[in-house]
């Protein structure tokens, strides 16, 4: 090899050894190091170093031709001696020559490295000997970093004297080099530390000091910050802050203006930047020590604000200040974000700002130079944190030079104008994190999330008017989506919504139609945030936005924006009616399901997911069919079955998983509640189950997954064959889960359909009879017993006694007294009655509205006198109240003057009027109950429809049911709304508890304990005085 090749190989070998230095140094013996090298390819993912590639190339060059020739021979010879022949090829003469040559060259390269290593070591030792100060230390130190093992007090005092500014430079340089190798803890604990610190800070403030001196001082300070606790380093930080402050005041550097630039390579600028960088690093790390040393927080914060409040004199030329350089180093004010994170430090920061440093220049507005831009960004980040907290807002108004004091509202208006005037940062990327518009949006968004902050800063007429100004003008397209985003966040709060709906000072004239889809879509999103609430829908209903949106959708096909906007109508009962009238309900529900499959929120500002919206849609028959056609129902059934039994994508199982001890496993609870929400309305039950027979197959496979609600009933509830039992991995748990769906039977209309179509009671009774031979009590038998009693007996909480779901021991005397005298009874007449009833029910129309529970109630109130009952119902049908408490009459009557589109929807006024106003008033009168419904994904309108449709049967005692009918008939139709609110007020404490336990839906299907209308008449009269004009006038409009 030539000398150049040897030098190259030595260089590659040196690089290779440096790369695996950690692995070799960790080997305890040379043998272990050899093992590391032998197995390096297996353990090192970066094995293909340049040295390895070089060796591989040498092997390929030497043996490539030989191997090719041997392989050619083997292909022509008999294959039985292939292994032996290959072995012979490997020990060929060429291979031996290659290994000898390669070993010699690598050995030469290694010797070359060893000789150069010895020369390097000798050179380093000579330098160390030249720079070592043996007279200042007690030993020579170790061979790596030459640090002191310990240092005497006399030596430190001597160093302090040598660092005096009056000493020659060479003496001071030697003292600084010696100080760098001294332990920081010994230096800071010595008696001469005060003088030493004074001399070090004097070095930093000397105008003609060498940069090497200042670098030595800063290195010592940095080592102290990283190795010593806060109670020690806070003195260094304070001293460093005073030094930097003195430098700024003495230098009086000019702020660059016009064509001037800030050259950070200038010695004075470079020195200040290094000192500010060290302080900024300490600011970011100091918060980790504040909890342990809170007594030193004030000194550190005060030193920082004292430095940042430095101003130049009153000369017309602007002077460069500490804030300007800090903005360059930490443009997003990460240090201030950390300081404002904890309450303990935030309180102190805001108190010091208020008491001493009100003139902190954080509100300045600069023009477009790079340094000015950094200062603006830094100021915005600081302001964004200050304004979020009450004590920070108390700093305003702030006195400003040459103008009136700046108030909170003035500052927010300034921020909005910054957003209008500066769309793009210096990099011309409007989505950049440092874009002024993005920073302002982030600040305003954070304000919107805090109610008190939003009320004081954003929900002010001047702020809203400033936001509206560009909508009157032909401003740049980039501005309008920003405005729409802020407005949408504002109207997502109660106070902001009320400001836009009811403040007449904000009304604007007609605007020019802008053709930009993004702009129009952004403002449609703002309207969507309004009309997804009951109050917003009441105000915006007159503008027919749902018709305009669906027309634009069909014409322009703005899939994402317009479908999202239309979907917001489904958040309220009346909105569901308007959505159905547009004819786009199926498309909107399909769009919602597609977002559900992608694990996306309903919208980016929706906090409670799909539960509320799905429940509202499922309360109507048309909505239930849309959910089924979209695939949501099938996906819900599949998700439930996957959690309960197995899924389509599960691996093949040999044995089932261990059975849970709970009736409903936690993994199934979410799916169970979603299914209850879907089937809580008798209308949805009718649409999903009517005319759908059960499969009742003779054989089911373990992998067969149900795809619909009837399939689920067939597999989990109507378990009436051995094939169904054997098809379940967890028979008892799954069957018990199915029986817990008896909460659906709390809707009597739903129960009548289940009984007439599936004869569900006979199935459950037969399952109970199968256990008669061997007496067994388990979860399934207890739940079947509870379900049978629940559906067989009607009455309020004190009029029927439901059996417990847990086993209770009763005395033998009680069993004897309650046993019948004759166990055999004649029930053939009952079987005939059931058969004829099922025949009548199955011959009904598809639009069957449910049983006429008001007629049954009136018949019982009249003691079974059908003439008196008929006379009362005739008189009742002529008044407005009948349209709401008698839904069956509204459905059947042709004399009720309903709009054609409303009648076609099949939705009762009970839903889109009464239940709608229950939700609207609940938000104002019972906000805690409203929040409980929102968090659970259930809706007040769903349960109110449930109660009102069956006249509170099985929920209230009979006297209270009679009181409900009398109150509505005598006091007015709007009292139906007030009655529901009274019941919810009675249940409010329990609603909060059940929401926390995730049992709200099941709890609301149970009888209502302890409620009496007479206890809440005053409350209902109060609601009448407040809302009658609103509620009753809308009811009359049907």
Automatic annotation (TrEMBL):
Cell compartment(s), UniProt: Cell projection, Cilium; Cytoplasm
GO terms under cellular component: cilium; cytoplasm
Start and end residues of each BROMI middle region domain: 154-362, 365-509, 516-555, 557-727
Domain BROMI N-terminal: 9-126
InterPro entries per record: BROMI_C, BROMI_M, BROMI_N, PHAF1/BROMI, Rab-GAP_TBC_sf
Keywords: Cell projection, Cilium, Cytoplasm, Developmental protein
Organism domain of life: Eukaryota
Entry keyword annotation includes Cytoplasm: yes
GO biological process, one term: non-motile cilium assembly
Positions of the BROMI C-terminal Rab TBC-like domain: 744-810, 846-1038
Keyword NAD carried by entry: no
Main location class: other
Function according to Swiss-Prot or TrEMBL: Required for high-level Shh responses in the developing neural tube. Together with CDK20, controls the structure of the primary cilium by coordinating assembly of the ciliary membrane and axoneme, allowing GLI2 to be properly activated in response to Shh signaling.
Protein name: Protein broad-minded
Organism: Hippocampus comes
């Amino acid at each position: 090899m030539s000398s150049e090749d040897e030098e190259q190989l030595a260089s590659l070998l040196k690089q290779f050894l440096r790369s695996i230095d950690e692995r070799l140094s960790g080997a305890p013996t040379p043998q272990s190091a050899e093992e590391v090298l032998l197995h390096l390819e297996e353990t090192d993912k970066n094995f293909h170093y340049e040295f390895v590639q070089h060796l591989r190339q040498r092997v390929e060059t030497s043996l490539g031709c030989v191997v090719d020739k041997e392989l050619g021979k083997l292909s022509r010879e008999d294959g039985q001696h292939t292994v032996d022949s290959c072995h012979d090829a490997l020990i060929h003469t060429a291979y031996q020559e290659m290994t000898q040559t390669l070993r010699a060259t690598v050995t030469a390269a290694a010797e070359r490295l060893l000789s150069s290593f010895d020369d390097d070591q000798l050179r380093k030792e000579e330098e160390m000997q030249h720079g070592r100060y043996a007279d200042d230390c007690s030993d020579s130190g170790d061979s790596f970093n030459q640090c002191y093992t310990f240092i005497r007090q006399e030596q430190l005092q001597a160093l302090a004297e040598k660092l005096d500014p009056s000493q020659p430079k060479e003496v001071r340089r030697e003292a600084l080099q010696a100080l760098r190798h001294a332990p920081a803890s010994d230096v800071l604990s010595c008696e001469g530390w005060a003088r030493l610190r004074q001399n070090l800070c004097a070095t930093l403030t000397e105008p003609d000091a060498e940069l090497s001196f200042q670098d030595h001082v800063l290195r010592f300070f940095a080592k102290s910050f990283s190795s010593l606790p806060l109670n020690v380093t806070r003195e260094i930080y304070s001293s460093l802050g005073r030094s930097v402050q003195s430098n700024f005041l003495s230098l009086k550097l000019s702020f660059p203006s016009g064509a001037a630039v800030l050259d950070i390579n200038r010695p004075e600028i470079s020195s200040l930047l290094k000192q500010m960088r060290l302080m900024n690093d300490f600011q970011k790390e100091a918060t980790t020590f504040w909890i342990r040393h809170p007594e030193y927080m004030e000194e550190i914060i005060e030193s920082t604000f004292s430095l940042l409040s430095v101003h130049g004199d009153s000369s017309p030329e602007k002077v460069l200040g500490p804030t300007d350089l800090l903005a360059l180093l930490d443009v997003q004010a990460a240090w201030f974000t950390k300081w404002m994170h904890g309450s303990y430090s935030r309180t102190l920061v805001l108190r010091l700002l208020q008491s001493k440093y009100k003139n902190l220049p954080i509100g300045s507005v600069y023009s477009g130079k790079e340094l000015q831009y950094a200062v603006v960004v830094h100021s915005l980040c600081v302001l964004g944190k200050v304004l979020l907290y009450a004590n920070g807002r108390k700093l305003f108004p702030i006195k400003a030079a040459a103008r009136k004091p700046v108030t909170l509202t003035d500052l927010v208006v300034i921020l909005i104008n910054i957003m209008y005037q500066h769309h793009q940062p210096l990099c011309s990327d409007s989505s950049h994190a440092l874009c002024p518009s993005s920073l302002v949006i982030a600040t305003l968004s954070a304000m919107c999330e805090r109610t008190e902050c939003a009320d004081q800063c954003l929900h002010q007429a001047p702020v809203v008017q400033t936001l509206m100004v560009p909508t009157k003008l032909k401003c740049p397209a980039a501005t309008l989506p920003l405005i729409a985003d802020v407005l949408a966040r504002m109207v997502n709060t109660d106070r902001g919504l009320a400001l836009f709906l009811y403040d007449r000072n904000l009304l604007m004239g007609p605007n020019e139609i802008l053709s930009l889809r993004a702009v129009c879509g952004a403002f449609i999103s703002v309207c969507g945030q309004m009309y997804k609430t009951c109050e917003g829908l009441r105000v915006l209903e007159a503008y027919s936005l749902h018709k305009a949106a669906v027309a634009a959708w069909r014409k322009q096909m703005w899939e994402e924006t317009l479908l999202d906007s239309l979907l917001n109508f489904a958040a309220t009962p009346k909105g569901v009616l308007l959505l159905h009238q547009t004819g786009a309900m199926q498309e909107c529900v399909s769009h919602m399901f597609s977002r559900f499959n992608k694990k996306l929120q309903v919208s980016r500002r929706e906090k409670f997911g799909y539960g509320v919206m799905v429940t509202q849609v499922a309360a109507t028959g048309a909505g239930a069919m849309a959910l089924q056609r979209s695939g949501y129902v099938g996906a819900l059934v599949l998700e439930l079955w996957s959690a309960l039994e197995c899924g389509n994508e599960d691996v093949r199982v040999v044995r089932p998983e261990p059975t849970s001890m709970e009736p409903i496993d936690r993994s199934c609870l979410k799916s169970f509640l979603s299914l209850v929400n879907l089937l809580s309305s008798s209308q949805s039950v009718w649409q999903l189950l009517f005319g759908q027979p059960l499969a009742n197959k003779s054989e089911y496979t373990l992998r067969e997954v149900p795809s619909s609600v009837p399939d689920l009933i067939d597999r989990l509830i109507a378990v009436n064959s051995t094939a169904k039992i054997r098809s379940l991995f967890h028979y008892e748990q799954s069957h018990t889960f199915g029986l817990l769906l008896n909460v659906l039977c709390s809707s009597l209309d739903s129960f009548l359909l289940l009984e007439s179509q599936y004869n569900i009671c006979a199935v459950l009774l037969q399952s109970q009879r199968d256990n008669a031979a061997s007496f067994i009590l388990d979860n399934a038998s207890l739940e079947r017993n509870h379900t049978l009693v629940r559906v067989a007996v009607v009455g309020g909480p004190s009029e029927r006694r439901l059996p417990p779901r847990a086993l209770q021991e009763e005395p033998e005397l009680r069993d004897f007294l309650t046993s019948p005298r004759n166990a055999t009874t004649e029930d053939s007449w009952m079987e005939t009655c059931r058969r004829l009833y099922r025949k009548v029910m199955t011959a009904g129309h598809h639009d069957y509205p449910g049983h006429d529970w008001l007629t049954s109630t009136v018949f019982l109130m009249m003691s079974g006198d059908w003439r008196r009952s008929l006379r009362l119902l005739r008189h009742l049908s002529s008044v407005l109240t009948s349209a709401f408490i008698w839904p069956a009459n509204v459905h059947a009557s042709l004399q009720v003057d309903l709009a054609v589109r409303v009648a076609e929807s099949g939705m009762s006024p009970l839903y889109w009027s009464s239940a709608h106003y229950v939700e609207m008033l609940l938000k104002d009168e019972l906000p805690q109950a409203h929040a409980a419904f929102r968090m659970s994904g259930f809706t007040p309108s769903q349960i109110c429809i449930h109660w009102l449709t069956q006249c509170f049967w099985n929920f209230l005692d009979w006297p209270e049911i009679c009181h409900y009918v009398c109150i509505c008939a005598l006091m007015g139709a709007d009292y139906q709304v007030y009655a529901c609110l009274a019941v919810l007020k009675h249940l409010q404490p329990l609603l909060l508890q059940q929401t926390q336990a995730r049992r709200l839906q099941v709890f609301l299907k149970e009888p209502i304990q302890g409620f009496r209308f007479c206890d809440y008449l005053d409350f209902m009269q109060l609601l009448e005085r407040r809302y009658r004009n609103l509620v009753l006038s809308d009811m009359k409009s049907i």
